[in-house]
Design goal:
Glyas_Fos-R_dOase_dom, 17 strands, Glyas_Bleomycin-R_OHBP_Dase, 6 helices, 18% helix, 2,3-Dihydroxybiphenyl 1,2-Dioxygenase, domain 1, 8-stranded mixed sheet, 35% strand, 9-stranded mixed sheet, VOC_core, globular, alpha/beta, Glyoxalase family protein
């Protein structure tokens, strides 16, 4: 991995943390249906790891009366990078939740938390312990790692600018519509096509969280397993144009959209020029033609409930 792709030393997506009212149902879903491994619990917290990933966990569930996004966590190169980022954010008027310090969550580490322009809690951390992980076997239809997170914003341009101008994310591609203008911006911090994307929506909320499968066969087997479990499939299987990755979207028990994907594009930084893809072109949404055409009904499924956690730091 290039050490200087992101000017602030942000390296990759670590985990997405969700608060859910139906905590036990969600724990069961992520373990038994989605294929994550619960590596620890702490009171009202459940830490869920992907077997192929060195990250301590890729999803954290927290029991709460209100459904919300607790935080999105990204890695940093070093403690010095965390400190420098904190100083940079302060100079940009970004609201810090606290000074950089030792993290109290599984795997420890040193990090900073702050609110993005929409009020999401973002964490950037270094020195988090890695966990024992393994190679996912042929035919094993469980997530290898977290792939990316997509967030809805009702102020797409400003949110994209926050991530590119303040945090140094790079724009990979955009989706556009003749009626609506810009619909989605794909943003990267390493050579994966995107670690984060911002979608236009009626309110800030989770659009979806995506998990990388070992290959096409495992991706299809996983898609089928989740379908057989009676989980509502929103869209897929298909293959996007931007990022060239496959997609199968499902609604988890608390109404968050989760995706299985594979073969997300890797970018040659020196050769890359962002494209704008028209969503009216059927090839933009699905190169294979196997998924239902994108419709307003499908789009609305990913609007999600308005996030109740904006500009409110999670308790842990």
């Amino acid at each position: 991995m290039s050490s200087h792709l992101n000017e602030h030393g942000i390296t990759h997506l670590r985990h997405v943390d969700l608060a859910v009212p139906d905590y036990e149902t969600q724990r069961t879903f992520y373990k038994d249906t989605w294929g994550l491994t619960e590596v620890g619990t702490d009171g009202n917290l459940s830490y869920l790891a992907a077997e192929g990933s060195p990250e301590q966990y890729v999803v954290r569930l927290r029991r709460d009366a209100e459904k919300r996004l607790d935080l999105i966590s990204f890695g940093a190169e070093s403690r010095a990078a965390v400190d420098a980022l904190a100083a940079h954010l302060g100079s940009q008027g970004v609201q810090l939740i606290g000074e950089p310090g030792d993290l109290q969550t599984m795997g420890g580490g040193y990090g900073i938390r702050f609110f993005d322009i929409d009020g999401r809690t973002i964490e950037v951390s270094a020195d988090v312990a890695t966990r024992e992980h393994r190679k996912i076997e042929e035919g094993e239809a469980i997530p290898v790692r977290i792939s990316h997170a997509v967030m809805n914003s009702n102020n797409l341009a400003a949110t994209k600018e926050f991530y590119t101008d303040v945090l140094g994310f790079k724009l990979s591609d955009s989706l556009w519509s003749a009626h609506m203008g810009d619909m989605m911006h794909f943003l990267r911090v390493n050579d994966w096509h995107h670690s984060l994307a911002i979608a236009t929506g009626p309110h800030p909320s989770v659009h979806h969280v995506s998990f990388e499968m070992r290959g096409l066969d495992e991706y299809m087997r996983g898609t089928g397993r989740v379908m057989r479990a009676g989980i509502k499939k929103v869209w897929g299987p298909g293959r996007h144009l931007a990022g060239n990755n496959t997609f199968s979207y499902f609604i988890d028990p608390s109404g968050n959209t989760m995706e299985y994907t594979t073969e997300l594009e890797k970018i040659d930084e020196d050769q890359w020029h962002p494209s704008v893809y028209d969503i009216a072109d059927p090839m933009t949404q699905d190169q294979w033609g196997t998924a239902d055409p994108m419709s307003e009904i499908i789009a609305k499924e990913s609007f999600n409930d308005p996030d109740r956690g904006l500009f409110v730091a999670p308790p842990v």
